[in-house]
Amino acid sequence: MAHTTLPGFRDFYPEQFAERAYVTRAWREVARRYAFMEYDGPPLESLELYTAKSGDEIVGQLYNFVDKGGREVALRPEMTPTFARMVSARANSLRKPTRWFSIPQLFRYERQQKGRLREHYQLNVDIVGEAGVAADAELVACAIDICRELRLTSNEVVVRVSDRRVMHAYLAALGIPSGAFEVVLAVTDKLARQPRAVSAEKLAAAGLNESQVNAVLDITSATLDTVATAIVATSEPGGEHVEELRRFFEYVGTLVPDGAAWLQFDLSIVRGLAYYTGIVFELFDRSGEFRAICGGGRYDNLLGAIGGAALPALGFGMGDVVLTELLRARKLLPVTEPSVDYWLTADEDVPLTKIMAEAAQLRAQGFSVEYALRHQTPSKQRKSANAAGAHSIIHLTNAATAGSHAR
RNA sequence: GUGGCUGUAGCUCAAUUGGUUAGAGCACCGGAUUGUGGUUCCGGGGGUUGCGGGUUCAAUUCCCGUCAGCCACCCCA
Length: 407
Fold this sequence. Notes:
The structure is a single chain. This protein has helices at about 15-35, 50-55, 80-90, 135-150, 165-175, 180-190, 195-205, 210-215, 225-235, 240-255, 260, 300-305, 320-330, 350-365, 380-385; strands at about 35-40, 45, 65, 70-75, 100, 105, 120-130, 155-165, 265, 280-285, 295-300, 315-320, 340-345, 370, 390-395, 400-405. The longest helix has 20 residues, at about 15-35. Helix 4 (about 135-150) runs parallel beside helix 10. Helices cover about 40% and strands about 20% of the residues. By secondary structure, it is of the alpha+beta class. About 35% of the residues are buried. The protein has 2 domains: about 15-40 and about 125-330, BirA Bifunctional Protein, domain 2 (2-Layer Sandwich), CATH 3.30.930.10; about 340-405, Rossmann fold. Residues about 400-405 have low confidence and may be disordered. The two termini are about 40 Å apart. Strands 1, 5, 6, 7, 8, 9, 10, 11 and 12 form a 9-stranded mixed sheet that branches. It has a 4-stranded mixed sheet with strand order 14-13-15-16, with helices on both faces. It binds one RNA strand of 77 nucleotides through strand 12 and helix 15.
C-alpha cells in the first residue's frame, strides 16, 4: 500500500460521506429553523490568534508550521477565535442579537482514540449581544432539537446544565475559601473519571474539611433547590443567578415540547475552557458509553478581552465524530444504497448517440440517469441497472419504440 | 508524550505443535444462463502475510525494532 491517510485523518467513501451529509443536513436544517445565519472563515490562521489568548502551552496541541513566507501558522483548532475576530470587526454594524452558525473542519495535533481524531467537523452556533437567559435557552433548545431531528430522544441523551456563578456561590456557602476554588473545579470536572478516594485526597489537601469534601464529592446529586437553600441560608450573593437558572429551565421546557425531560441540573459540569462566565452545558448519551457530544455556554467577557467590542456572547460546539458514533450504535443512521431514477438499456444495434440523446432529455427534466458507456449485452445492462439501484429501466430498441417498467 | 492489546485480499475470516505455489465467502471485472429486472453456473484480477531485521534447513506462525489501529492515562473538541 503506497499511500494511506495520515493518522487521525479520514477518507470519506460514498457510504461515509452519506453519513456525514445526513448529520450536516440536520445541523443546517435546525439552525435555519432557529434563524441562525451561516458563515465561515479560513481554515489556516496565524499561530498568534490562538497563543494570544491561551498561552504558548497550547502550541503542543496545534497543527502548526512555518509557511513559505516564514509566517507561523496553524490549522484552526476551534472556531471561536475566528468568530470573535469577525464579529469584532463589524460589531457596530451587526444587527443584535447576532445569530450565526458555521460547520468548520477543525484540527488538533493529538494522539487519536475513539471519538477523538486529528480532524473533525464541528457545528458552531453562537449568539452575540444578548445578556438575558432567553438567549441561553434558545441555544440549548437548538441543540436538543438537533438531537430530535436525528431521532434521538431524552431516553438516550441528557443535557447537563450548570452555572459558573451559582457554583461559586454554592462553594462560598459551603464555607470553602475562594483560594481553593480552582482545585475544587478541577476535581469536580473529573469526579466521574477519577476514584472517589483520589478526589477526596486532593480536596483535603486543598484545605477542605470533611463535610466540605463530602459536599463536593456529592455535588452531582445536589438539586437546584438544595443549592438555593444553602445559598440563601448563608446570605451569600448569587441568589439572582439561581432565579435565572430557574427561568432558563422554564424557557427550554417551553421551546422544546419535551424539553424538561432532557435537562438535568448538575453542578459538576465545569467545562475546561476558562472563558466561560455563566450557564454552561454539555450533552451526553445517558449510557455513558461516549464522550460529550456537545458543549457550550456563556462567555460574556471574551470579545472584550481580545480587543473587540465588549458584547455578551454565548455558543456551543457539536462535533461529528461522537455524534455519528452514537447514531450508529443506536441504529439511527440511514442505510445508504445506490439510487438512480432511470437506467437506459438498449439493444446492441442501437447507436450510443441515441441513448445519449434520451439521457439528455431526461436529465434536462431533473432526473438522474445512467446507462452503459459502451456496448454490452442487454442482460449485462439489466444487471448493471439493478446494481445501480435504478428505480425505472427504459429499454431502447432500434425501431425507436421505448418501454419502461416500474422496478 | 506514557503504558497495554492487536496487525493475513476492499470487507469478514482460514492456513496441523514453524513445513510444498497463503485459501474461502462477499465485493469487483468478464462470459454464459435464466420465457423474459434481484436466478444459477463458469472464469478472472487482486496479498513481497503492515514494514525492517534476527533465530532456523524452513517463519503468516518464534524474538527485537518500527509504523499503524484500538484502549487507558495526559489533555481537551
